[in-house]
Amino acid sequence: MLQLIASAIDDRTARGVAAAVSRLVRTGELPAGARLPTVRSVARELGISPTTVSEAWRSLASAGAIQTRGRSGTFVLPPNPLRQHLRYARLTASPATLPHDLSTGVPDHDLLPHLAPALRRIGDTRLTTSYLEEPVLPRLEAVLRDRWPYPPERLTVVDGALDALDRIVGALVRLGDRVLVENPGFPPVLDLLEAVGAVPVPVSLDPYGIEPASLSAALDRAPVALVLQPRAQNPTGVSMTTGRAVELAATMRAHPLGRSVAVVEDDHAGDIACTPPVSLGESLPEQVVRIHSFSKSHGPDLRLAAIGGPAALVSSVADRRLLGPGWSSRVLQAVLLDLLTDPTTVRSLADARHEYARRRTLLCAALAARGVLAPTPDGINLWLPVRDQQRAILSLAAHGIAVAPGTPFEVRPLGGDHVRVTVGLVRDGFEDLAELLAEAADGPNRASGRRSHSLRRDGR
């Protein structure tokens, strides 16, 4: 087997070794269950450092291709059904079985704008005359540019924020690359990175966004990208302040490797966020690509998000789509354009923002009265500290309430358990729910009144 691996490798970098072994796994030449040679034997055979081989093995393990079992050795893993492997799939284990599902992270349907008037207004307008037209309706692009927090070189529209992240990651990231991510962060981002064999590197958060010191230390690891949520961060609700954006931009400019890092801003909350849009693109427009989603504000089934940033990257995404879906439905783009410019819809979105804020405020106040400090600055989710994640989930399930476990959000353990509660779906009964949440969080929370949603340092 050692000779098989050595003969397949023509690039002796960590990335090259990982890619060659990955190909052998995919073709079945390294079958599931096969035990790999030791790191030192591979390094000796290839004439490279054991550190290089270890790094390749870590990339393969992150991609789910191999697994190290301590002294027993390292083994090729069988292909797992993708859904079972995803962090994303672990957020809502059995929502259909519980009457009150607060695990989903979706907006309240009744706070979304009505689409029927917009559909009637656009009628049977002819929107497509050629398959090679620009992917964005010109009037929609003009409206999007007016809303952008900095002037992007190019804009395009894709089928939602996750589609945008998938395509941007596909354009930027390769096997073995390191990507900086928030800790805690959004599970589908971690799934995407694992799917391409990238290595997620956690950066810490505080109430103002990513911590500059944590970012500076993480840049030492030569990442290719930083993925962050600038508003209503999921799961914590934290929004980056203008001052913090300036600090982070300065940190990246000052670091020897900072100028080569692409910044991907996922503005997933969009128009239901109470905080104004803030972007590193105001300081680093040549490095920042921003995603603005309309799913939580205007409707998940619109399946629309805008991407704006450097022309080379956005053009790469748009051109690659020509070989797949081509463009996002221009009918749906026309609906979005109507919603963004219709005064009635604009007022209804303002009402939705205020209602989500009211729900957050009432539940957080009710929890604080019971000694549970879980401030939620923005968005529709609440990041609740609990003594024991599984116990809290079971305790709430006994009352018909589903919440999401905190573990899938963690790149590295935070030093305490959490669950995520979709507070945006809670319309009333805040005192009763707070009592159940406080009970699930466990008595010491209420007794001390000192435990907060603490965005803990991840112990770099």
From TrEMBL:
InterPro entries: Aminotransferase_I/II_large, HTH_trans_reg/aminotransferase, PyrdxlP-dep_Trfase, PyrdxlP-dep_Trfase_major, Tscrpt_reg_HTH_GntR, WH-like_DNA-bd_sf, WH_DNA-bd_sf. Residues 11-79 form the HTH gntR-type domain. Gene3D superfamilies: Type I PLP-dependent aspartate aminotransferase-like (Major domain) (3.40.640.10), Winged helix-like DNA-binding domain superfamily/Winged helix DNA-binding domain (1.10.10.10). Keywords: Aminotransferase, DNA-binding, Pyridoxal phosphate, Transcription, Transcription regulation, Transferase. It holds the Pfam family GntR. Signal peptide: none annotated. One of its GO terms (molecular function) is transaminase activity. In the C-terminal section; belongs to the class-I pyridoxal-phosphate-dependent aminotransferase family. This is Aminotransferase class I/II-fold pyridoxal phosphate-dependent enzyme.
